[in-house]
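Review this fold:
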Amino acid sequence: MPQRAQRGGIMNTATTHTQFSFETDSDPAFVELWPATANARFRSFGARPVRRSHGDSFVPNTLGFHGPIFDRTRMARNIRDQMTRRGAVGFSWAIVQNGQLVDAGGVGDARTQNETDQRNMTFDTRMVSASLAKPVCAVTVMKLVEDRQLALTDAAYPIIEPTFPGGHDTLNGITIKDLLTHQSGADVPALLSSFPDTLTSPLANAPGFSTKYENWNYWFLAYVVEAITGRPYFDVANETVLEPMGIDSMTREVDANAPCLYYNANSTSGGGTWGDFTATAIGAYGWFASAIDWAKFMAHFRYDTVLARPTRRVMLNAPETFFGFRHWDNEDRGSYYGHGGDFSSSSGAFHGGMMGFPDGIDAVLLTNSDDVPNPENILIDAYDAAYV
């Protein structure tokens, strides 16, 4: 692909690309629990008997009439076209179909030619995660619920009170589920260092009645995990969630050599990065991970390799907008779930999104550029366009 002029410089548009699988034992009995409106919409496109493509092979059609067929190459091409058109410095993506990683790649620069140690973006470039970390925390907490070390109805503050005494009385009304769904009633400064002081003030609203998205809720949950287990949150999340999913490259430390840099809109120089994060901060943000890592997380969540199926269904079928994941309902092909992440400083920004779609499709998109602030929307458009 030829190079093209971009924002006063040359954008490296060399693409690294791979197709391979990381999970071969997907549950054949898996059934999505999304509204039937999606199936009705399939019929409006002209349903017909088909043989469905799984990875690189065809399997017998056992589900009758499906309508349009998902085209992974069309989805990947749509992602690349949208991101390039918007001028992203660099981006990486991964697409999973029925538990198989069927497409992944990177375009542009992790570090541009204006930096020392220029480096192309690849599918396994590790970037900061921002709020993509919250679903990891939610799964970690739900694992404790499954193991009966915790209950969704438990009052949250008494669990951390020995570490943070002197909390305001209104905190006693917050349950574990309120924190998971951002319905704690908190409206507080978004600084982890301020967390102890926030506990001495009354809540802005009564818990359980309204939603306000706050990092505070997931810092609180990370402290709950530490209080219940007596161990650092980072270690518990690694051992109970990530390692069983085969994810061994997610850390809270930036790469030691030539880490990915992050750029402002319309900029290709002077990129910045972030350093290490505390173990508790990564309840809400701060993992360093690749598109492949997040694709594994989404697939293993879908196929219940850490949580039991009823637990996943509790999370995804909750009426709240958030339960670890955000819900997108009444979309073109049914209901979707996922999460976004955004991190910015004076020198640059990260934006990321991961989505779970009907028909066994999971997708991830990360960028080190402030030119594309909503990767979730890019993924939704590309998924909707991938059916022919």
